[in-house]
Amino acid sequence: MSFLRPPPQSAPLKHHLLYWFILCALASLFLSEVIALSFIGGSLASLTNTASNLLTTQAANSLASSIVSNSAQLFEDVLTDVIYAVTVLSTATGDSFRPDYSTGQEPSFYGAPESLDNPVVQPSNADHFPGLAISTTHSVWILAGYNETSNGKFTPPSLNSSTTNTLNQAAHVDTFVRPIYKLSPEVLSVQIGFEDSGLLKSFPGTGDNLNLGAYDPRTRSWYSAAVKNQATPASYAITAPYLSAFGRGWLVGTAKTFYNKVDGSLAGVATVNTKLSDLSNLLESYTYGNSNVAVFTADQNGFMLASTKTNFNYIDQGTPNYSFQNTSNPLITDGLWNQIVSSSSKDINTLTSNYGSTTYTDPQTGVPYLILWKTLSIYASDSAAKSQTPSWVAVGSVPITELQSIVDSTTSNLKKALPLSIGISFGVFAGTTLVVLLLVILFANQVVKPFQILSQESSRVSNNIGNKDLWEGVQDKNVSRSGVDEMDKLKDSFYEMVKRVREASLQNQAQRGDVIENKTFAKKSVGQDSIEVQSVLDLLPEHPPQYHEVFPQGRGGPSSSRPQPAQGSFLTSS
């Protein structure tokens, strides 16, 4: 770990700069890498811990769109087709009462079950009539008040003028019924009940209808529902599920009234029946795993119209309607059902995406589920549409374990991707480190460069000491810039100093020359003066003359009787 130690004090400045720059860069990059790895690990842990909630929220949208929404849409489409079919049927039947309507006589089976022994066509949905011969070319008539004979057979009552007239007028309706039945696989049977006579026309024709006994269509739920909701001639009614009187199982009927085109009076009710099991089979294509979807009436009863997990084969008379209470895996409790119904109130616009969702634990099994629901945009009757009260709600359930498998798969993929992410992270770290090191070295060289130049110039000055020119080889300025303000200022100051010192040196040299020249001249002048002085000195005696030699007596000098010097005088006689 010696490479982590700082360079010694005597090391070049470049080494110090490189050491501290690289140390800071590596520390920053290492911290960034730690943060990145912590983020990756924390994100993975957070995703693992919260994936159920996140994916549950996403599933609430995606599954509602796939399972519930698609199932609801499919259910609505089927009902729409059935409504269209019953509209055509009721219109055709009503037209039979027009006096100007020319009808061709078509045979119908009335009181002759032997006519059905050799049916013309065996339809694809003949399994709904097990063990029975049916005809898809003609219908069968049933008149209320069949009489049971001693041999156990039922004989139809005698026809009167009213029933005979109805038979003759409505015989041609089979022309419209046949394509409806053949083109609509969800249609089990078509029935037409007449108000005045109580006659029932049923298609396809089946022998068991003839042996039913007393049957009055005017007392049936589908007939009553249509009569109750005949607000307009276009009114229709979709019934709650009911058990077929002919042993066909649990059905839902779409009924519509038709009217006598002569006097406008109610002539009867036409209905198209669909088995709940057939509707349930349609929904299975939108489920997966242990998920389930069902359609209920959107009321407190919660009657079941279709379910991918409910068996509707219990068809004994007196069996109560299947409802949300008959569900399993999960069992829908009253509390959950109230939550679903309350969110499907009349304030909801059924034409929009009316989704609801919640997490729910099955009280029987303890298995947690994601529950999804959506109100259907189609109404059971005109009165329901007028009040905008939802008629049905599609409810889907998905075990949380199904979602958890998605979570586990996602987490597994993330864990597999973790080494790659870490490898990429380290690769980026190494590449970034290399780039940073190169930039640090470049920057350090740029910073150290002016110091190197100044060091070289200083060395030249030092080496020139004692030579003729102290600044030989030293430039006045250097135009290269380091990009660092302090370094450039130092260089500028140094070369400014060189310039000024050089100029001062040259000026001093000039002044020194003048001084030397003046000194030489002064020396010459002093020499000449000294010669003249020496000539004068040479004329002087070596000793000064005596007094009496300078001033002899009798020659005008002082008298010989000169005064004596005062006491203390420095003069003495010779």
From TrEMBL:
<feature type="region of interest" description="Disordered">
    <location>
        <begin position="544"/>
        <end position="574"/>
    </location>
</feature>
<dbReference type="Pfam" id="PF22673">
    <property type="entry name" value="MCP-like_PDC_1"/>
</dbReference>
<keyword id="KW-0472">Membrane</keyword>
<keyword id="KW-1133">Transmembrane helix</keyword>
<protein>
    <recommendedName>
        <fullName>Cache domain-containing protein</fullName>
    </recommendedName>
</protein>
<keyword id="KW-0812">Transmembrane</keyword>
<feature type="transmembrane region" description="Helical">
    <location>
        <begin position="420"/>
        <end position="444"/>
    </location>
</feature>
<feature type="compositionally biased region" description="Polar residues">
    <location>
        <begin position="558"/>
        <end position="574"/>
    </location>
</feature>
